[in-house]
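Weekly structure sync, notes
Attendees: PL (lead), two postdocs, one rotation student
Agenda item 3: pending single-chain targets
PL asked that the sequence for the first pending target be pasted directly into the notes so everyone works from the same version. It is reproduced below exactly as submitted, 178 residues in total.
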Amino acid sequence: MEAHRVYQGRKFEIWVEPASGRGGQPIPREVIRHPGSVVILPWVDADTLCLVRNRRPGVGKTLLELPAGTLTPGEPPLAAAQRELAEETGYSARTWRPLTWFYPSPGLLSEIMHLYVATDLTPGSMRLEADEDLEPVLVSWSQALGWLQDGTLRDAKTMIGLLLWERQRGVEDAGCGA
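Predicted structure, written out during the meeting:
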C-alpha cells in the first residue's frame, strides 16, 4: 500500500498511509497533515492577559482561548504569531519570547503548535478573516487561573499555555533559573 491523499482542504490534507500492527500486518492509517500553527500568550500589562471569545462550529460552542492561527506555507512561526495577534486582537507586540512547541493530537494529526509570549503590546485594529467570529477579552491572571479551575476554559492549547506559564513563573519566583 502506498500513501495517498483522500482530501485536500484549505488548511489541511487527509492522507491514508501504510503502517504496521504489532504482528507486522499492514494497517492503513488516516493522518491529517497540517502546516502547523501558533499560539500567543499576550500580556496587555503585568497582570492582564488578552484572550479571545471564539465561535467553534466543530464543537458547537463559543470558547475562551488564547489567540492562535495556522501557518501559511513557508511562513516562519514568529511571523505567523505576529500576524495572528494583530488579526485576532488588534494588538502588536514589541517583545516576543518562544515558550515551547507541542503536538496537539499526535494520534491523527501532524500539526505542531508553537507557543509564544507577547509583551509590550500596542493596540490597533483587528483584521479578522471571513470565517472568523472573535472578540478580544481582557482578563486578569487570577481570573484566568480561576477559569482553569472551574472549567470555564476547555481549549487544550489555552490550558497548556496558561499552566506552563504559571509553572514557569513559579520557578522564576523561586530563583531556580528558568
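Discussion points:
- The first helix runs from residue 77 to 89.
- Strands lie at 4-8, 13-20, 26-33, 37-45, 48-56, 61-65, 68-70, 92-102, 113-122, 134-140.
Action: rotation student to compare against the earlier draft before next sync.
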